[in-house]
Task: inverse folding
């Protein structure tokens, strides 16, 4: 039997572990955390006050019984020796390795970023920080609530927009629509990374009185004077602010050097193979693949790697399916390596699909083989090449 | 005075402008940043960016489907 070590028990790692056939592989999942978090849930905790327990489950409970779970931290991976060194000194050897540890959020690049994280929390990093943000927005009764971004590459591109819609809904419901202004500050020329999507979403943001600041890349935060300064030379006052920090790849050592300038693991964007190795893969937010850092990417790359380990020639198309929800409607931002995001219509039905996803999520992680035909039918029906012609 | 080269050919919107923003973070006044891109949206984007930030657009050309923008960094604080 061949031994597969998967570092990371998030969406990508867990789906891959559960997809690999028990008869062919000995499977080990390593994670320094004990709990798997449904990360879009941070928004629900931060802006709707939902309980954090809804969005977390022990990693062990999400893995099939034959998958071994090691609760511990990897400190070094040696791709030549086929070994993973753990913090407690133990070593794991492997026949195949898959790196799936997500993006590292670096709050120390931008002056003041850690300070506002400590003060207000965020909707991005942990359930505790999401709870902190709920308390901060709940206490706010006037001024600007600023949602900022420090680097154009961040996971879940519609995340800040969802935060803007949900927080504006919350302030409206509390009767504070005229007192608290939601400000969405983004590095891009338009209100969304893709102009096609910006054209759809901008009127919705404006309708709700959300102020959009384009070409605003957060450079520093002056916590004393409560001002955010942009790389482009502008300023923004806040009473509460949350800034998505620069992302980086894995912080642990990987030998030989296979990371880019930002520590992202360099892979073949179709096969997920780490450059120069046929027994090492990386999936999800930790890679340099030129696609959105999102759950769907991790999920589809996990399927590709599962197939490849079994000898099939599977390839990832770069497909994204990022949900962007307003207070009552939604769209999915659909693209792949060959197609930029296609124009789509906002609808209540798509919002319903996103809400349904929350209820299917744990099942999709635990039993990916049962959900695969359902997801595949959906992905086939909504291929970007088809949607360009048909519309959706 | 450094010269920073950014190859954003093949990247879809907003890849090239994002690459420029990332290069700009590391740049100093006096440096030049040269960006190559194939996404047609980059042309208006870089013009708008220069206008907003107050840096100097030294060159903006298009040849054989490749857009080349050369920016002199002058507005960093």
Result:
């Amino acid at each position: 039997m061949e031994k597969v070590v998967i570092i990371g028990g998030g969406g990508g790692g867990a789906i891959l572990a559960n997809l690999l056939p028990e008869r062919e592989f000995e499977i080990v999942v390593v994670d320094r955390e004990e709990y798997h978090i449904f990360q879009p849930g941070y928004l629900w905790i931060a802006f709707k006050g939902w309980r954090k327990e809804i969005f977390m489950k022990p990693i062990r409970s999400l893995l099939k019984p034959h998958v071994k779970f090691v609760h511990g931290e990897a400190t070094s991976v040696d791709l030549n020796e086929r070994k993973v060194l753990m913090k407690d000194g133990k070593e794991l050897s492997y026949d195949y390795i898959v790196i799936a540890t997500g993006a590292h959020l670096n709050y120390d690049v931008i002056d003041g970023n850690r300070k506002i994280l400590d003060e207000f929390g965020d909707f991005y990093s942990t359930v505790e920080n999401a709870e902190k943000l709920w308390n901060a927005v709940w206490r706010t009764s006037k001024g600007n609530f600023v949602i900022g971004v420090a680097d154009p590459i961040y996971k879940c591109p519609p995340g800040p927009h969802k935060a803007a819609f949900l927080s504006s809904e919350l302030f409206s419901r509390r009767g504070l629509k005229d007192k608290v202004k939601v400000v969405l500050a983004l590095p891009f020329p338009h209100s969304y990374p893709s102009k096609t999507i910006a054209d759809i979403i901008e009127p919705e943001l404006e309708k709700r009185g959300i102020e959009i600041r384009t070409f605003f890349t957060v450079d520093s935060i002056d916590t004393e004077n409560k001002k955010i300064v942009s790389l482009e030379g502008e300023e923004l006052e806040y009473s509460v602010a949350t800034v998505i920090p620069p992302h980086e790849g894995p912080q642990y050592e990987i030998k030989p050097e296979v990371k880019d300038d930002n520590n992202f693991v360099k892979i073949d964007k179709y096969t997920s193979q780490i450059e120069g190795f046929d027994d090492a893969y990386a999936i999800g937010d930790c890679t340099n693949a030129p696609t959105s850092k999102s759950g769907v990417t991790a999920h589809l790359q996990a399927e590709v790697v599962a197939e490849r380990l079994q000898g099939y020639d599977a390839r990832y198309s770069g497909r994204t399916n990022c949900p962007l929800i307003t207070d009552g409607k939604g769209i999915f931002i659909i693209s792949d390596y060959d197609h930029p995001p296609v124009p789509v219509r906002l609808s209540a039905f798509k919002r319903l699909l996103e809400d349904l996803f929350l209820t299917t999520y744990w099942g999709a992680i635990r039993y990916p083989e049962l959900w695969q035909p359902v997801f595949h039918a959906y992905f086939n029906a909504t291929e970007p090449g088809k949607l360009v012609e048909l519309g959706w | 005075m450094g010269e920073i080269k950014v190859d954003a050919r093949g990247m879809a919107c907003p890849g090239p402008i994002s690459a420029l923003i990332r290069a700009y973070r590391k740049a100093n006044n006096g440096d030049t940043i040269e960006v190559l891109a194939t996404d047609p949206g980059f042309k208006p984007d870089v013009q708008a960016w220069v206008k907003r930030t107050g840096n100097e657009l030294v060159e903006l050309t298009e040849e054989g489907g490749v857009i080349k923008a050369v920016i002199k960094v002058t507005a960093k604080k």
